[in-house]
Amino acid sequence: MKKITQFENQKVLVLGLARSGEAAARLLSQLGAIVTVNDSKPFDENPMAQSLLEEGIKVICGNHPLELLDENFALMVKNPGIRYDNPMVEKALDKGIPVITEVELAYLVSEAPIIGITGSNGKTTTTTMIADVLNAGGKHALLSGNIGFPASEVVKTATKDDTLVMELSSFQLMGVRAFHPRMAVITNLMPTHIDYHGSFENYVAAKWHIQDQMTADDYLILNANQDLAKTLAQKTQATVVFFSTKEKVDGAYLEHGFLCFKGEKVMEASHLGIPGSHNIENALATIAVAKLSGIENNVIVDTLSAFGGVKHRLQKLGSINGVLFYNDSKSTNILATQKALSGFDNSKVILIAGGLDRGNEFDDLVGDIKGLKHMVILGESAPRVKRAADKASVAYCDASDVKDAAIRAFELASEGDVVLLSPANASWDMYPNFEVRGDEFIAAFEGLKGAQHD
After folding, report:
1. What integer is the mean pLDDT of 362-371?
2. Going by fewer Cβ within 10 Å, which terminus of the chain is more open, N or C?
3. Looking at the domain assignment, is residue 5 inside a domain?
């Protein structure tokens, strides 16, 4: 970590805790700043705030008092989830107080070069793929950012011989100024988080901050399947490298079943460890980063062939008596389940679906579930999911929860089949979040596997 002095004896307000705020507060304190933390959660319910107070950091909990900003702060480090129309943020900006997110803070002290990954879909999978390939190639990559490892925590022990592979959200990128990755990937850009940004144009602008400081010596990897990316490519100083599943580009592309880079075949697409057309895009982006980083083809092939996915995101759990199990609990909407199904032969799939009833029908899913071997349906939305199954002429049965669904699906499966949890629904009718739902599916798989060996 660089020893910088710009925060020494400077008053800094950390607005909002969670893991990134806690990490930022500790880093700033270590850099000599006079830190105040302000979090909405009451102090007696806030173990993070209690821990920071024990370390001598001032904490104010329970609300966001506007008068706090009269204390002449030199900087605000904002939790990415707090919107810019929050009164505290608005007042800070009105007073001329710079507002950043903790990834900017991490960049300022980082000795390690940064590879930044953003986009609407596929960020976590692509980030993990890239880190795995770089590590297999001896580059010592460290995961950080939105993937669950706060950058301002990871950066403390990172050296110039490491590489920070950083997943970045639009919320985080709105708060960067000097941030300068040596490589950046934008996986794709779809209308999302419009409630936060106000428009798709604002959302794209937030994502585009990733390349603000990049130069011709840096590589910006863009998805040529999207016309928007081709337009944006004209507006950067970085050297653009495209990836595409639809055309041959000066970069990474799919051609005759092979994943290629600049005229060279790297690996067969069918050898990827996880299915789905979207994962071919993720792999192509990874191959672009890997080749530009000097990784050998055999390392790329071995790593991507063995890649089993990110937990709860089309995660390959393994097989029982020739029946493959995939955990895609993160699929909380129809589009995500459509993408998951695109990687399989429907005639061999038993799909587990259903969850929170948001009032929407599942007509958009009908074409994608046609030909399924069977469905196991659960949750509040079961009647609506069943209507879609009826329209698709797919047989189905009921399950009481995910464990029951996994057992029933396995009973229906034969060697060569796939049991796929891809609910197309949020989990909150039965589970606190999709992770708990996915963990129950993993436990059910392990239980079934163990029972076969008893």
Report:
1. 96
2. C
3. no
Are 146 and 241 within one domain? yes
Is 316 annotated as belonging to a binding site?
Answer: no
| Same domain membership, residue 158 and residue 301 | yes
Domain end call among 306, 334, 352? 306
Weakest-pLDDT range from 19-23, 48-52, 330-334, 450-454 = 450-454
pLDDT for position 313: 87
Residue 119 annotated in ligand binding: yes
User: How many other CB atoms sit within 10 Å of the CB of residue 246?
Assistant: 10
Whether the predicted pLDDT of 453 surpasses 80: no
- Known binder of ligand: residue 121? yes
CATH number for position 90: 3.40.50.720
Instruction: Check whether 120 is labelled as a binding-site residue.
Output: yes
Evaluate if residue 148 carries a pLDDT over 80.
no
Question: What is the domain range of residue 428?
Answer: 315-452
37 lies in the same domain as 133: no
248 and 143 assigned to the same domain: yes
Choosing from 56, 76, 100, the residue where a domain stops is: 100
Q: Answer whether residue 392 is part of any domain.
A: yes
Give the model's pLDDT for residue 95: 96
371 and 332 in a single domain? The answer is: yes
Q: Is 450 annotated as a binding residue?
A: no
The predicted structure's pLDDT at residue 196: 85
248 labeled part of a ligand binding site: no
359 among annotated binding-site residues:
no
Q: Do residues 123 and 258 both lie within one domain?
A: yes
Looking at the fold, whether 130 and 89 belong to one and the same domain comes out as: no
- pLDDT, residue 357, reads 92
Judgement on whether residues 193 and 294 belong to the same structural domain of the protein: yes
Q: What is the mean pLDDT of residues 404-432?
A: 96
- The confidence band for 454, taking pLDDT boundaries of 50, 70 and 90, is low
